[in-house]
Write a structure and sequence with these properties.
Elements (H helix, E strand, L loop, with lengths): L6 H16 L30 H11 L6 H17 L3 E7 L6 E7 L9 E7 L9 H17 L8 E7 L7 H8 L1 H4 L2 E7 L30 E6 L11 H14 L6 E6 L15 H5 L4 E5 L21 H21 L5
Parallel strand pairs: 3-4, 3-5, 5-8, 6-7
Antiparallel strand pairs: 1-2, 2-4, 6-8
Helix pairs in contact: 2-4, 4-9, 7-9
Amino acid sequence: MRIRRRWVGLWLAIALLVGLAAGLLPTGFLGESHSRPQPTALGSALTTPDIDPARLRGDVEALSFVRYEAGDRQRAAEYIERSLTAAGWQVARQPFGTGETAGENLIATRPDAPPDRPKLLLAAHYDTVKDSPGADDNATAVATVLEAARLLDSQDTPCALELVLFDREEAGLEGSEAFVADAARRQGVRGAVVMDMIGYGCDLAGCQSYPAMLPIAPPTDRGNFLAVIGDLQRNPYGNRPHPDLIQAFHQIADASSADVTPVLSLAVPLLGDLTPDLLRSDHTPFWKAGIGAVLLTDTANFRNPHYHQPSDTPDTLNAPFFLGSARLVVKAVDWLLHEGDSQA
């Protein structure tokens, strides 16, 4: 996750302050999942296959090495591509940049997918900062993409699933910028679910922190939730609202009870250059292009003391929290493929 220290807190503080002043934020915008208004009911025929915890853990362990230099990033890309191909997906590589700034995104599609359907993206970055093996940042998210590839088949759904693994997020969102800049790649994309650190939870009082200028009382001092951060309708880029993306995660959290990680959500007014800390992960290029996107995160350094450190290893993750987060993502994506395709 490419963030300055305290970026998540600044997201919350600035977005809450401006959103409250402008009357843009919905009631209960930072409430627990049970306080959210209910969208349409889950389809009775929708049954998502369950995640294999051992397989999920195995992918995290296989990817938990420093993925900073070009050769190490290529090693990670080859592992990802082999895994996706074995699950029946067709993988294309999107090179970008030159020399030291060169990188390569991976885009996976089903070879038998019907053409001309709207697309939902499930995305994560696979690079790390220097000297960190990046188990939480961001092997947890990549492993969840791989598990979704094994479990979900969108051949008969109204919306097609596309899996995207971004390179060089830590260098300045270069991979996601390159993806969105390609008109052919973004054509038909109705929304993006972007994951960046979803495997660290803590349930001790005081383990979740917030900035001092937060204009409301923090909802909890325990890091036992996954933050879902989405965009609002009004911003300088003319982005359209996509409330269905946020609501899908509340819908699944409410329906699944203890099976998945609880959700706290925030709808953010995009304020351009005045709030650069709102724009520091791979959802940002989609927002700027007018494509609805949500970021899922465990709030990084406001909870995880191993953020961008050599100690970001598999043994420091919270396994039940990670499993619940991965279940939440796969189930919500499955719901969006079946139910959430018409309001892009």
